[in-house]
Amino acid sequence: MPAPSDILSDPDIAQAYEDVRSDKSETTWLVLKYESATKDNLKLAATGNSDIAEMTESLGDDEAAYAYVRMKLGNDEYSERTKFVFVVWAGPQTKVMRKAKMSFQSGQVKQVIRTYAIEIQTGDKRDLAEDAVTMKLRKAMGANYDRQGSSY
Q1: How many domains does the chain divide into?
Q2: Is residue 128 part of a domain?
Q3: What would the pLDDT profile of 18-68 be if each residue is shown by its tens digit?
Q4: Is 90 within the bounds of a domain?
């Protein structure tokens, strides 16, 4: 059984994680993918500085991947909060053995990607639509300041 440091030995992974976490970096997401269909080692497959929709485009229907996304929530600049989302992706055509291994390996990935507000395990890109993820983040935060008709 490989140690987390073995499957996550790519030095670019730790740097990309720090970049997504940092407000000083333009990087807002990263995607980790398996080196090959037969290997369990993960590599940094992509990073970006746009929204979650851009990240979602890099996930294939036959791929297993992990993603980490920085998102901003709020009604204005004063109430804006930065939240992080951890995504465990198993596309609809991902091989059964890979999916089975992912439940164990996602725990190893979480030893590197440690800080996030919500985790989304999915094989359906609709679950990663910005409004769907924003709704999950708001539920996790508890407060909803978007209700209509509130008076002060």
Answers
A1: 1
A2: yes
A3: 999 999 999 999 999 999 888 899 999 999 999 999 999 999 999 999 999
A4: yes
